[in-house]
């Protein structure tokens, strides 16, 4: 996977350098599997189906990037962004990772042995969707009703049920999911409310008997000093990781909407309870 991720970052950097459009958000997905970019063809079809059935994208076109044929998807999330900030306990407005990045995150979680994927603050459900196509049992927790309605539409149009729930992740009863070996994805950057969300989730995991020894937690971090005034280690999550006695298993850097115009990608830190 390491080579694939490095290839993706190279493609992203070239795409940014040559992008001449004016869409609010933009990303690409390789058109087909190849020796340089090898992904299960059925999974790749599913990723394109997610983009095509997702109303935040209004345009798509073919583009060759560093010799790899891709489909570029352009969209606008302003309406959903504005709606997502109205909730008092929302930890971060709707800013999605890239679809292909969501796929690699879910793939790593499955490779690490997790059988369930819990996407906290799931936006349009792309990480949960990717877990589902990989054969994991996905649960999508999102506080914003408009985004959950969007997720339900995507479930129906793609025939992939990743179990969207319109719930406050801080209040939800996770014992009701009967989890066995879950990976929790925390949707929120540190020092932007993500730490509050993560602390609440960890406390809830601790309260469920025999769960934490089989549980992984994935944090979205940042390398930006503009967003982090303190410790930059582990994408800004080092204090929380140390406080709750978590071990870092792996860290991968992937393109997201909020790093489109940056030279560094978003680090995703995979941890487990010590």
Which SSEs are present, and which pair or pack?
Layout: H1 2-18, E1 25-30, H2 41-53, E2 57-65, E3 68-75, H3 78-84, H4 99-111, E4 116-120, H5 126-133, E5 137-142, H6 145-158, E6 164-166, E7 182-186, H7 194-207, E8 216-220, H8 238-243, E9 246-254, E10 266-273
Parallel strand pairs: 4-5, 4-7, 5-6, 7-8
Antiparallel strand pairs: 1-3, 2-3, 8-10, 9-10
Largest sheet: 7 strands, mixed
- Please state the overall shape, judged from the principal axes of the Cα atoms: globular
CATH homologous superfamily heading:
Vaccinia Virus protein VP39
Please give the count of helices. Answer: 8
Number of strands: 10
**CATH architecture field:** 3-Layer(aba) Sandwich
Tell me the count of domains.
1
Helix content: 25-40%
Description:
The protein is built from eight helices and ten strands. A hairpin with a 2-residue loop joins strand 2 and strand 3. The two termini are 25 Å apart. The mean pLDDT is 89.
Key attributes of the depicted protein:
274 residues, alpha/beta, Rossmann fold, 7-stranded mixed beta sheet, 3-stranded antiparallel beta sheet, 8 helices, 10 strands
Can you summarize this structure?
The chain has 274 residues and is an alpha/beta fold. It has helices spanning 2-18, 41-53, 78-84, 99-111, 126-133, 145-158, 194-207, 238-243, and strands spanning 25-30, 57-65, 68-75, 116-120, 137-142, 164-166, 182-186, 216-220, 246-254, 266-273.
């Amino acid at each position: 996977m390491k080579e694939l991720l490095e290839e993706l970052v190279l493609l992203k950097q070239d795409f940014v350098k040559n992008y001449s459009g004016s869409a609010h958000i933009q990303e690409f997905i390789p058109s087909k599997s190849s020796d340089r970019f090898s992904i299960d063809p059925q999974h790749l079809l599913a990723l394109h189906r997610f983009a095509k059935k997702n109303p935040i994208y209004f345009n798509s076109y073919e583009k060759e990037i560093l010799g790899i044929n891709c489909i570029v998807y352009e969209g606008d999330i302003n309406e959903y962004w504005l709606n997502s900030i109205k909730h008092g306990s929302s930890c971060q407005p709707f800013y999605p990772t890239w679809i292909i990045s969501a796929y690699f995150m879910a793939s790593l979680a499955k490779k690490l042995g997790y059988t369930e994927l819990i996407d906290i603050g799931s936006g349009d459900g792309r990480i949960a969707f990717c877990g589902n196509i990989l054969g994991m049992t996905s649960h999508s927790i999102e506080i914003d009703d408009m985004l959950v309605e969007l997720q339900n539409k995507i479930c129906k149009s793609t025939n992939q049920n990743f179990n969207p729930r319109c719930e406050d992740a801080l209040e939800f009863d996770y014992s009701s999911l009967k989890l066995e070996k879950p990976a929790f994805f925390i949707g929120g950057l540190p020092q932007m409310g993500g730490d509050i969300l993560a602390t609440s989730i960890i406390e809830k995991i601790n309260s469920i008997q025999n769960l934490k020894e089989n549980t992984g937690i994935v944090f979205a971090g940042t390398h930006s000093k503009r967003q982090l005034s303190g410790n930059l280690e582990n994408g800004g999550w080092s204090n929380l990781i140390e406080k709750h006695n978590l071990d870092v298993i792996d860290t991968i850097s992937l393109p997201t909407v909020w790093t489109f115009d940056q030279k560094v990608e978003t680090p995703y830190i995979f941890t487990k309870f010590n």
